[in-house]
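To illustrate the input format used throughout this study, we show a single complete record. The first block contains the structure-token representation of the backbone; no residue identities are included at this stage. The design step must infer an amino acid for every position from geometry alone.
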């Protein structure tokens, strides 16, 4: 999924990366009593940003936006560079894998204007994100593996945040009539013929 010019991509990247970091901090402040750990919350609203970035910016640029945004938070977790980079990589990889699996299972591209597509994408993302993060933690942060209950909590938190974000996104886009802009930003040249036949 590509934007119309590299200038737009860099501009959105410069905005999206710090926005993700700010959203994470905001979520921790609002839901501080709902946190299981510094990496797991019962409601994690920035989960939707991970999904949205990949859908709107495209897998490549979306990955970079989430990775950089997550990397900005590394210092707040008291992590070394390897740990922060691994966590950022896991954060960015989850939605990429979810989009790929959605296309494999549905045998078509995701339609961003369909709330049902977004919800299904969020479900896949929540499951895969938890798996990827726990695999990363077992590699270089075993202290993050505290209990067998934390993976389902992470799935619930990411799913809740992603679905809430998807619903709000759909309402705002429909009310403001911005789907034409979103469709232009998320248009994949390689999928244009495929989408015409959906």
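Output of the design step:
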């Amino acid at each position: 999924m590509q934007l119309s010019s590299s200038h737009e991509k860099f501009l959105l990247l410069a905005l999206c990366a710090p926005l993700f970091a700010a959203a994470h901090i905001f979520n921790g402040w609002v839901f501080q009593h709902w946190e299981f750990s510094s990496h797991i919350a019962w409601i994690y609203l920035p989960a939707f940003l991970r999904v949205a970035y990949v859908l709107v910016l495209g897998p490549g640029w979306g990955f970079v936006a989430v990775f950089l945004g997550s990397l900005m938070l590394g210092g707040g977790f008291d992590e070394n560079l390897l740990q922060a980079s691994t966590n950022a990589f896991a954060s960015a990889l989850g939605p990429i894998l979810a989009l790929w699996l959605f296309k494999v299972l549905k045998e078509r591209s995701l339609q961003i204007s369909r709330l049902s597509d977004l919800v299904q994408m969020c479900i896949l993302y929540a499951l895969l994100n938890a798996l990827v993060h726990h695999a990363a933690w077992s590699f270089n942060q075993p202290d993050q593996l505290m209990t067998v209950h934390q993976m389902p909590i992470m799935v619930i938190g990411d799913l809740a945040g992603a679905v809430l974000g998807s619903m709000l996104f759909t309402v705002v886009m429909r009310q403001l009539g911005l789907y034409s802009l979103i469709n232009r930003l998320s248009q994949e040249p390689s999928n244009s013929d495929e989408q015409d036949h959906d």
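Structural context for interpreting the output: Residues 150-176 form the longest helix (27 residues). Helices lie at 6-30, 46-57, 59-71, 81-106, 115-140, 150-176, 179-185, 192-196.
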